[in-house]
Fold this protein.
Amino acid sequence: MRVAFFDTHQFERSVFESVNKQFGFDLCFFDVRLNRQTAVLAKDFKVVCSFVNDSLDEETLGMLKSGGCKLIALRSAGYNHVNLSAANLLGLTVVRVPEYSPFAVAEHAVALLLTLNRKIHRSYQRVRELNFSLEGLVGMDLHGKTVGVIGTGKIGSAFARIMHGFGCNLLLFDISPNGNLASELNASYVTLEEIYQGAHAISLHVPLTPQTQYLINQKALTQMRHGVFLINTGRGALVNTKDLINQLKTGHIGGAALDVYEEEESIFFLDHSNEVLQDDTFARLLTFPNVIITSHQGFLTQEALGNIALTTLTNIQDFERQNPLKHQVTAPAN
Ligand code: NAI
């Protein structure tokens, strides 16, 4: 079976090649992202493997179908970048990797919160310039503080458990509350408003859906506690970035740490250091001393990469052998 990989990076190719020894597929790696311009590269490949910033819109999917594609194997948990209705209509099967290491992303969210709170990003730079001043570096004890977790699925619950270990009080929100988690952590499920009013730090772990898009907007931000830290490792468009910038400018929001950005497709994963940054909103974000941005690296651990490769290739093997597909995604029924 020939598999065309798009938007590939050296760090994952070697892992896929190693895991593929037990599967024996014919893997072909393309650096470019999958979109209307590049879909032609997948001609005669029965399987296309794509990542989070590929664009699988109706036209691209149509081109893949004409080229002989039968299976879209996402090597991601999120699938908001795929037009699932179009895929279903075209008869393209879509599978994903629903879980590869919730700890990878949860630990990254914790790293972002700790960095933001204790201003490690600033002290790192200062010390390298032999500036050992402590002015402006005061943080707070996280112990005893209240942390809001929005989305308590695999990643949100791993994050909540770590924060519980830090001695934080947890306020949880999810459309499907997990009673066992709440009792384990001595925490409560509350309304979003209660999280906004009570939490010193809020971490987002819901998927991007029409219901969660811009969940964090001007109204939500102004309801939040003064000086709150906002952590987003979910998806960029959970947050209205312009509204966030407004509230950072007033000082109401104490800081933001973002592993995702709503317009990240044109920025993240690539070296733009020789170019002029065209995205003025992103440029403004970069000017705040209390904003930390990482380029969607929450998943980037050895364990997660190994699991992504194993599940992706198992998904493809299941499709090839006509086994039941454990990780198929379909369009929601209307
Ligand atoms: P999950 O499916 O285990 O958990 C998501 C939770 O969100 C579920 O408990 C669900 O009930 C809840 N939820 C869904 N819609 C909701 C709504 N409208 N309001 C409140 N709660 C809602 O997913 P998992 O594995 O925890 O991943 C969460 C998200 O993290 C993914 O959807 C993805 O966008 C993001 N992610 C980011 C990565 C990164 O590298 N930064 C890597 C992997 C995932």
Notes: The domain at 102-293 is CATH 3.40.50.720 (Rossmann fold). The pocket of NAI is lined by residues 77-78, 99, 102, 105, 151-156, 174-176, 205-209, 211-212, 233-235, 259-260, 296, 298-299 (CB under 6 Å).
